[in-house]
Amino acid sequence: MNLLLDRLDQIFSHLVTASERVLFFSIGGLPLIVLWLLAGGLFLTLRMGFINVWGFKHAIDIALGKYDESQDSIAGEVSPFQALATALSGSVGLGSIAGVAIAIQIGGPGAVFWMTMAALLGMSVKFVECTLGLKYRLIKPDGTTVGGPMYYLSVGLDKLGWPRLGKFLAGFLALAGIGAAFGGGNMFQSNQAFAAVVAAFPSLSHYDWLFGLSAAFLTGLVVVGGISRIGVVTSKLVPLMMGIYIFGCLWVLAVNFWAIPSALSTIIQEAFSPTAVEGGAIGVLVQGIRRGVFSHGAGLGTAAIAHAVARTQEPI
């Protein structure tokens, strides 16, 4: 068993190394994928007229259920709020906790500034991808709904006269999504979750197999019910999770209120003039954007898949 696990670990290591050489090819010290995400976020923010600012109230209205439609004639399988909860369940978690800590450890306090910038630009990216997910979703004969980047890439680019490019990008995204689901979506999350349990209860350190089976069983109970059951479960759990998360953040800020001004000053200063970070300001920017995207997931397509099944006639 150990030999098999070691072999699998070697295979994944080779795959990660090969993909890293391509995706993190540097241009002027800035990895290509980071430059692409930054350029995409800036372009969509400008092209959409700063939708991340003036559209914020509309987003809150949707979250509060103002536009929920329950008529049978409306296409979709979950309410807009349930779609939002489903999307959040996959983006707000360890990436927002461990990811921030890693960014600060590697890139220094200045990485927080660039993570914030990445989040603001990511709001525009997520708005566009979720809107496209709804616009180009597919309603099957049995009434079920599917959508996401695989569909709006193939269908959308086909309508623009680039059918082959659309099919290639859709297929490439699907294959890349398999690796992302294995790595960040499952291995990292389950490993870190078990590490947290062991930190609280050291006596359970030898029961990793039981933890894995339990997590798989509980997840299976939800997933086998399809997107409708996932939406119902996440609409109950995610608000609770977010409430605990926000309360914890506010508690830390309240306890350390006296240190906030100096912390903000350090963050701004280290963002542009880092003192002990490899790569200087570029290194800080890279770490901030990388961890920022890992945290909010804008541009990865997962949120678009969840929102594509929302019960609404209006993509916006």
Summarize the structure.
The protein is 74% helix and 3% strand. The chain is mainly alpha-helical.
Description:
The protein is an all-alpha fold. The protein has 14 helices and four strands. The strands form two sheets. The protein has a two-stranded antiparallel sheet with strand order 1-2. It has a two-stranded antiparallel sheet with strand order 3-4. Strand 3 (138-139) and strand 4 (145-146) form a beta hairpin. Helix 6 packs antiparallel against helix 13 (280-296) and helix 7 (110-135) packs across helix 13 (280-296). The longest helix has 38 residues, at 163-200.
Number of helices: 14
Average pLDDT over all residues: 79
Instruction: Please state roughly what percent of the residues sit in beta strands, choosing from under 5%, 5-15%, 15-25%, 25-35%, 35-45% or over 45%.
Output: under 5%
Distance between the termini: 50 Å
Biggest β-sheet strands, sense, barrel = 2 strands, antiparallel
Strand order of the largest sheet: 1-2
